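Render this sequence as a predicted structure.
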Amino acid sequence: MPCVEETDQLVQLIDKKHEVLTQLLTLSQYQLRLAGHSDHIDDLMRVLVAKQTLIERLTNIDRTMDPFRQQNPDARVWRSASERTQCSQKAKHCEVLLTELKQLEQKSTEIVTTHRDEISKLLQETHTAADSASAYSNMNVSTSRGFDLTAE
């Protein structure tokens, strides 16, 4: 049967998880503003590195919470009914934050993909124009070498 100390540990883990998710949400909102802007690529990379660190932290917190998932929630010993209510509300808010994070990630991915496709199309058009110009230039050089076009 779980003791109050175990429940205290669960409360601390849920608090940490909530804190990390809140930080991830802030970074994801910033990432969304940066996505699709080539002039902010360095900032975007810094955001992604910071997010990776937080995701690793979140993964560790979740692993530490695994034993609590096997417990019967009604068997936990709480310091007070209000603590149980607060912890439950925070755990539910964590789920809301996760849903928001997934939505922001999807939007960012769509923006970055669209931007990437636009850049690819521009590069392809530039490459095609350069090939045409080069072919035209080579055509002029080769035709002018073979014939004397000066009038006498």
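Summary. Residues 28 and 105 are 7 Å apart (CA to CA). Helices lie at 4-34, 41-69, 81-146.
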